[in-house]
């Protein structure tokens, strides 16, 4: 083979290899220069915890760290320091591309977090200023840690409340009050019918895309509402949800938070998504909104968390008068389940 052909073949091989690796998306090797906050990783070996390195996260991202460990049982410790919040979604080790799942995982406060870290599906455990101890009964020697997590700084300007519809749009949702019975207000969602409204949000901060669903009920004394916010997969003390009901031409707020109880603030699983998320259940006396059975109410839902969200396709149930009302027009925007209006633009909120 001539020298020219040998050179051409070598170039072809290099191109193919580079193309192969470019097409792959392996976990990112962590940036060890980020000092704002980190998870410090140690392995229990020779009777002591030996520091292996640190991983620093921003949005939910998957990072890797080579470990120095013996074959057999592996005990790993994750200690988080810095930032204002941190959550862990997935932790495994691997070698030669073979994944090894842990057999136990606890926060040293006693919380079992194993189910939270087995799959990368936003069912996260709180890792902020925490120590997690994770065990593999059988792990290969010198494995590589694969970890998916997020760390963030909240700050005063990190987010603002999110509303649906947005008040500046001069629109509300409407509902004809029918005595369909109340609900048990306990923060445990038990809705099995088509929601009265839903809206899809895409956060630009580290939270999953998802729908917010809402149901309206009433009896002879109370207005009830159940709302699940699937975007909000973290339970923070400052979280709140609120109904704003039109009373005498003005929107009156009924908020559920840590210390304001127009209902119950829950956090749990539903059939909508495979991870825990915020649930708000309201119980408001009809006398507070000057309404009775047969009245039509106009309202807005609001919530507070820590995400920047893009408002996408909006849906409402239009079969019983629950259409979007445009305040600038004397007519309803009618419709049944399906796309109603498409609004785009980035809006800050906190989830």
Mean pLDDT: 80
What is the strand content? over 45%
Amino-to-carboxy terminus distance:
64 Å
Helix-strand sequence = HEEEEEEEEHEEEEEEEEEEEEEEEEE
Structural class, judged by helices and strands? mainly beta
| Main beta-sheet annotation | 7 strands, antiparallel
Instruction: Tell me the number of strands.
Output: 25
Subunit arrangement of the protein: single chain
Tell me the helix content: under 10%
- Specify the overall morphology: elongated
Count of DSSP-assigned helices: 2
Rounded radius of gyration (Å)? 25 Å
Low-confidence stretches: 1-35, 310-350
What's the short story on this structure?
The chain is mainly beta. It is 7% helix and 48% strand. It has helices spanning 3-23, 114-117, and strands spanning 28-29, 37-45, 48-55, 61-66, 72-82, 85-95, 98-100, 104-107, 125-126, 131-139, 144-152, 162-164, 171-176, 197-203, 210-218, 222-229, 240-247, 250-256, 263-268, 277-285, 296-304, 306-316, 324-326, 332-333, 346-350.
How would you describe what is shown here?
This protein is mainly beta and 351 residues long. Helices cover 7% and strands 48% of the residues. The chain has helices at residues 3-23, 114-117, and strands at 28-29, 37-45, 48-55, 61-66, 72-82, 85-95, 98-100, 104-107, 125-126, 131-139, 144-152, 162-164, 171-176, 197-203, 210-218, 222-229, 240-247, 250-256, 263-268, 277-285, 296-304, 306-316, 324-326, 332-333, 346-350. The strands form 4 sheets. Strands 12, 13, 17, 18, 21, 23 and 24 form a 7-stranded antiparallel β-sheet that branches. A 7-stranded antiparallel β-sheet has the order 19-20-16-15-14-22-25, with no helix packed on it. Strands 1, 4, 6, 7, 9 and 11 form a 6-stranded mixed β-sheet that branches. The radius of gyration is 25 Å and the shape is elongated. The relative contact order is 0.15. The model is unreliable at 1-35 and 310-350 (pLDDT under 50).
């Amino acid at each position: 083979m001539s020298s020219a052909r040998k050179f051409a073949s070598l170039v072809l091989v290099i191109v193919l290899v580079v193309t192969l690796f470019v097409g792959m998306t392996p976990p990112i090797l962590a940036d060890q220069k980020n000092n704002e906050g980190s998870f410090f990783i140690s392995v229990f070996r020779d009777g002591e915890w030996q520091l292996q390195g640190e991983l620093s996260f921003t949005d939910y991202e998957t990072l890797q760290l080579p470990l120095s460990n013996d074959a057999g049982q592996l005990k790993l410790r994750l200690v988080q320091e810095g930032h204002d919040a941190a959550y862990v979604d997935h932790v495994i080790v691997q070698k030669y591309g073979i994944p090894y799942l842990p057999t136990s995982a606890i926060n040293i406060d006693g919380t079992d977090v194993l189910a939270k870290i087995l799959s990368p599906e936003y069912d996260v455990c709180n890792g902020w200023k925490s120590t997690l101890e994770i065990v593999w009964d059988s792990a290969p020697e010198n494995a590589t840690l694969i970890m998916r997590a997020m760390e963030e700084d909240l700050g005063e300007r990190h987010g603002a409340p999110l509303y649906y519809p947005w008040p500046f749009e001069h629109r509300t949702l409407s509902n004809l009050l029918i005595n369909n019975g109340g609900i048990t207000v306990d923060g445990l969602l038990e809705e099995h019918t088509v929601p009265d409204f839903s809206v899809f949000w895409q956060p630009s901060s580290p939270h999953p895309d998802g729908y917010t669903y809402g149901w309206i009920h009433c009896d002879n004394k109370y207005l009830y509402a159940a709302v699940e916010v699937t975007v909000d997969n973290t339970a923070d003390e400052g979280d709140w949800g609120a109904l704003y009901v039109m009373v005498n031409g003005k929107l009156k707020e009924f908020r559920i938070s840590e210390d304001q109880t127009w209902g119950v603030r829950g956090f749990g699983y539903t059939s909508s998504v495979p991870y825990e998320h915020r649930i708000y259940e309201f119980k408001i006396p009809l006398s507070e909104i000057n309404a009775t059975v047969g009245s039509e109410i106009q309202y807005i839902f609001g919530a507070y968390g820590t995400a920047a969200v893009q408002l996408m396709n909006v849906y409402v149930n239009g079969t019983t008068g629950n259409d979007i009302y445009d305040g600038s027009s004397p007519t309803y925007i009618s419709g049944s389940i399906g796309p109603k209006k498409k609004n785009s633009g980035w809006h800050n909120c906190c989830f």
